[in-house]
């Protein structure tokens, strides 16, 4: 079984759908359950009790868990000096705290299954220091640092932990951004194009494959920096 957070929309949904269509057993976690072709559970990754409840439900399925894909996340285009504290808290709690809580909750299930894969989501904005996204970048930089260290802690249990850091992707997360802003980021990538959710889903499937069992503690920037 593969757990996918943020599975109701955006990259999370694209990844979950791709895995489900390829024959994988998927359970999606989301605050808002929508019409999905795969099984879903209600879960707010920022709330420890909600995460614990999802853990108990999944544990109750009594099926091996092979992977956790952490795609739940929020973003906000604001200069650091003008970002409201409520926005700061929402971004940090969802992106960083949410990632830590779900890793803590579901890694033991992967260990019990004999090992597997955790993929946390960052952003290429961390590597390029994207102005106008200071708080978002800070939250995702925390995800990267956590993932590198967690990879070392999980290695003895045969659990690989990596990050995928996409550039601008056609999802609802970027739908409200000005095309000039998006193009400015694309031009700072090595491969200067805007990628699709399917491209990220393909990378997820590659990291889940046993052929990549030597890769852990890494951040893979989609588009390159």
Mind explaining what this structure looks like?
By secondary structure, this protein is an alpha/beta fold. The protein has one domain: Rossmann fold (3-Layer(aba) Sandwich). It is built from seven helices and seven strands, in the order E-H-E-E-H-E-H-E-H-H-E-H-H-E. A seven-stranded parallel β-sheet has the order 3-2-1-4-5-6-7, sandwiched between helices. Helix 2 (48-60) runs parallel beside helix 3. It is globular and about 50 Å long. The termini are far apart. The model has no long low-confidence stretch (mean pLDDT 92).
Fold topology:
Blueprint: E1 2-5, H1 10-21, E2 26-30, E3 40-42, H2 48-60, E4 67-70, H3 85-112, E5 116-121, H4 124-128, H5 134-154, E6 159-165, H6 179-186, H7 197-208, E7 219-221
Parallel strand pairs: 1-2, 1-4, 2-3, 4-5, 5-6, 6-7
Helix pairs in contact: 1-7, 2-3, 3-5
- The count of helical stretches stands at 7
Q: How confident is the prediction overall: mean pLDDT?
A: 92
The unreliable regions are: none
Overall spatial form: globular
- Kindly report the spatial arrangement of strands forming the biggest sheet: 3-2-1-4-5-6-7
- Report how far apart the termini are: 33 Å
CATH architecture: 3-Layer(aba) Sandwich
The CATH topology is what? Answer: Rossmann fold
What order do the SSEs take from the amino end to the carboxyl end, as H and E? EHEEHEHEHHEHHE
What is the level 1 CATH name?
Alpha Beta
CA-based gyration radius:
16 Å
- The fourth-level CATH homologous superfamily is NAD(P)-binding Rossmann-like Domain
Note the beta-strand portion.
5-15%
Biggest sheet details: 7 strands, parallel
């Amino acid at each position: 079984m593969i757990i996918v957070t943020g599975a109701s929309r955006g990259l999370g949904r694209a990844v979950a759908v791709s895995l489900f269509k390829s024959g994988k057993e998927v359970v999606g976690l989301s605050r808002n359950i929508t019409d999905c072709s795969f099984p879903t559970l209600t879960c707010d990754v920022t709330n420890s009790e909600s995460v614990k409840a999802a853990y108990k439900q999944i544990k109750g399925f009594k099926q091996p868990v092979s992977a956790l894909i952490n795609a739940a996340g929020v973003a906000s285009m604001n200069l650091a000096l003008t970002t409201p504290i409520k926005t700061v808290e929402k971004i940090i709690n969802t992106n960083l705290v949410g990632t830590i809580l779900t890793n803590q909750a579901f890694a033991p299930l992967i260990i019990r299954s004999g090992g597997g894969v955790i993929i946390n989501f960052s952003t290429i904005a961390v590597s390029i220091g994207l102005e106008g996204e200071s708080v978002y970048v800070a939250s995702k930089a925390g995800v990267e640092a956590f993932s590198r260290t967690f990879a070392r802690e999980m290695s003895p249990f045969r659990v690989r932990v990596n990050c995928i850091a996409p550039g601008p992707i056609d999802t609802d997360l970027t739908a409200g951004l000005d095309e000039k802003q998006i193009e400015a980021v694309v031009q700072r990538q090595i491969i200067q194009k805007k990628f699709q959710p399917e491209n990220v889903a393909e990378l997820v499937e590659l990291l889940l494959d046993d052929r990549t069992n030597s890769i852990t503690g890494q951040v893979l920037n989609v588009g390159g920096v």
